[in-house]
Amino acid sequence: MIGIIYAIIPGILIMLITILIMYRRKKPASRIVLTAVFILYITGVICLTFFPVDYTDVVDENFDVFNNTIKLIPFEIITGMIQKYDLFVIMVEVGGNILMTIPFGLMFPLLVPEKKKVFYPLMFFAFTFGIESMQLLIGFLLGTFYRTADVDDIILNFTGAMIGFLIFRFLPVKLKEKFI
């Protein structure tokens, strides 16, 4: 079992190095704090979505990787959960996927100002697609598939990032200017 520590230590080191570089370049304190929080957030997402990696449960040769680890039909998993689980489990799964990416949608535009309207939705999609792709890639590389690459997760994560972006859009301009 590969544990969360393999994500936390590099995340903290990257954060400390970034803070040092930004401090030496005399970046505003608000920008340094936002960057540090963003790096910790990304580290948390990595810990939540990739770890622990179970490399002990090697898949047998009859395992159907495509049907068991890749879910391409929108809302198939959610529909199955509605039929199988109680409302609390559904809310945790659906709500958790949405809540997980709200901070990304809020902080990323503060850190990466861009004028083109299509840039942020594309980056949000790339982020959520990247999470699902990495889960699948880790499974292929280690020969174990304890996670699924699910289109529902992409939809829910993208929705969360867009909610975060809407919050960003309604922030006062003076507050946004403190981070740029």
Largest sheet: 2 strands, parallel
**Average of the residue pLDDT scores:** 85
SSE pattern, N- to C-terminal: HHHEHHHEHH
Fraction in helix: over 70%
Overview of this protein structure:
There is one protein chain. By secondary structure, the chain is mostly helical. It folds into two domains: 52 residues; 117 residues, no CATH class. Helices cover 72% and strands 2% of the residues. It contains eight helices and two strands; from the N terminus they run αααβαααβαα. Strands 1-2 form a two-stranded parallel sheet. Helix 2 runs antiparallel to helix 5. The model has no long low-confidence stretch (mean pLDDT 85).
Features:
2 domains; 2% strand; globular; mainly alpha; 180 residues; single chain; 72% helix
Strand-helix topology:
Blueprint: H1 5-24, H2 29-50, H3 65-69, E1 70-71, H4 76-84, H5 87-111, H6 119-142, E2 149-150, H7 151-170, H8 173-177
Parallel strand pairs: 1-2
Short description, anyone?
The protein has 180 residues and is mostly helical.
